[in-house]
Specification:
Length: 450
């Protein structure tokens, strides 16, 4: 078992900042820049943000710490990590490996759209603010047969190129470039957005809670966003944690990563919603907010062409930092368990993920008659991961730490055997044993019967 580890050793992060940036990059992705602003817009703005922040503290930090603890303790992939601690539990890690594989297949399709929109922005395609024209442009892309598949392949090729370089030489190296660039670009766009005439209404909508807007659907949307945004239940943080040295401060890392992720999500909201309000568009524009509404916003902005290129580059950087972590989850499993070389594992798995993304892309066009639970194949993959695999993986993680391995063992690992402070360990233990499983179980059941 794990022959590859015994013969060649396991790669590690070369620095703490490298791990933090890579892990934050895994969390910061389309969930922040594409999904968070429109989900906030559809769920009451500030009310949604308030619930989201509460759940980041209760569920986000708790599960983030738990996954890093398991990974660092075992120094193994998601499946091997659970199995090493307790035989018969490897299937829980398998949920994460499967989720990573499936998510990346349709995530990469969306990543391809982003590359296409960078090309469109650079060639001046967003010269109109007519929503109908822009909507037609987006629909033409997504329903096309070959164009989105070509861009999907390009996005997967970029992801493959980074992951094949390994942890310190690939993922960490590129995260150190991409993450600071991402922060600079989002701040530039925020400054442009909040200084537009009429932006104050958008800021108020985003930051001032309307408590009457809080209902069960708001809470469910916020909890789902926490999972998607923080890459929880996907095995990403177990895998990244497995490359940590034994002297790293896990409680500190598990705090910094959600903070960075939440910071980007809030900045994304400030980059998008004030501009949407300032220029008279609908904040509840749904998934089309980024691809239809924002190009209209940029068309009306002074220097809008430049900011359109900047914005879609920002979205691409965020998408790549997440896609490399999703691919690494599956690659790590194959390298550890099947003794494949990293190059072989990365290439074959990338090809398989690309292949699964083809019907996902085609289901938005020529194959839109293939329906599951009123969903086309693309949306069905999202349902499988968002409503089943991720919450189930998160629920079983809580049960595993709280009731199988034991909170005391987890805390011992988190504190490096008592050398590192974990002041809120008793609260963390209570949350992972009782509070988080109830919250996650609720979203899981509600999602299945909804």
């Amino acid at each position: 078992m794990n022959k590859s580890m015994e013969t060649q050793g396991r790669d590690q992060w070369s620095s703490k900042i490298g791990f933090i940036l890579a892990a934050a990059g895994s969390a910061v992705g389309l969930g922040n820049l594409w999904k968070f602003p429109y989900t906030a817009g559809m769920n009451g703005g500030g009310a949604f943000v308030l619930i989201y922040l509460a759940l980041i503290i209760i569920v986000g930090f708790t599960l983030m710490a738990a996954e890093i603890i398991i990974g660092r303790h075992t120094q193994l992939n998601a499946i091997g990590a659970y199995r090493k601690i307790r035989k018969g539990w490897g299937w829980v890690g398998g949920l994460g490996v499967l989720a990573g594989f499936v998510i990346l297949s349709y995530y990469s399709v969306v990543g391809g759209w982003v590359i296409n929109y960078i090309v469109k922005a650079a060639t001046g395609a967003f010269s109109t603010s007519d929503i109908n024209v822009l909507g037609g442009m987006f629909e033409s892309l997504t329903s096309s047969t070959w164009e989105p598949i070509i861009y999907h392949g390009l996005f997967m090729a970029i992801t493959l190129g980074i992951v094949i370089g390994g942890i310190s030489g690939g993922i960490e190296k590129f995260s150190k470039i991409l993450m600071p660039s991402l922060f600079i670009m989002v701040i530039l766009i925020v400054i442009r957005s909040v200084t537009l005439p009429g932006a104050a209404e958008g800021i108020k909508f985003f930051l001032k809670p309307d408590f009457s807007a809080i209902n069960v659907s708001t809470i469910l949307a916020a909890l789902g966003q926490v999972f998607f945004s923080l890459s929880l239940g996907m095995g990403c943080m177990i895998t990244y944690g497995s490359y940590l040295s034994k002297d790293e401060n896990i409680p500190q890392s598990a705090t910094l990563i959600p903070l960075l992720d939440t910071g980007v999500a809030l900045l994304a909201g400030l980059a998008i919603l004030p501009a949407v309000f300032a220029l008279g568009f609908d904040p509840a524009g749904g998934p089309g907010l980024v691809f239809i509404t924002l190009p209209a916003v940029f068309a009306k902005m002074p220097m809008g062409g430049l900011f359109a290129i900047l914005f879609f580059l920002l979205v691409l950087f965020a998408a790549i930092t997440s896609s490399i972590s999703l691919l690494e989850v599956v690659v790590s499993f194959v390298v550890d368990e099947w003794n494949w070389s990293r190059a072989k594992a990365t290439t074959i798995i990338s090809a398989a993920i690309f292949a699964l993304g083809i019907p996902a892309s085609l289901s938005l066009g020529v194959w839109d008659t293939i329906i599951f639970r009123d969903l086309v194949f693309f949306d069905a993959l999202g349902f499988l991961t968002d409503q089943i695999l991720l919450p189930l993986g998160g629920l079983m993680l809580c049960i595993f730490i709280g009731w199988v391995w034991g909170v005391d063992n987890a805390v011992k690992e988190a504190t490096n055997g008592g050398k590192v402070k974990f002041t809120i360990a008793p609260i963390w233990g209570f949350v992972i044993k009782y509070l988080a499983p109830i919250a996650i179980g609720y979203i899981f059941i509600t999602g299945l019967i909804g």
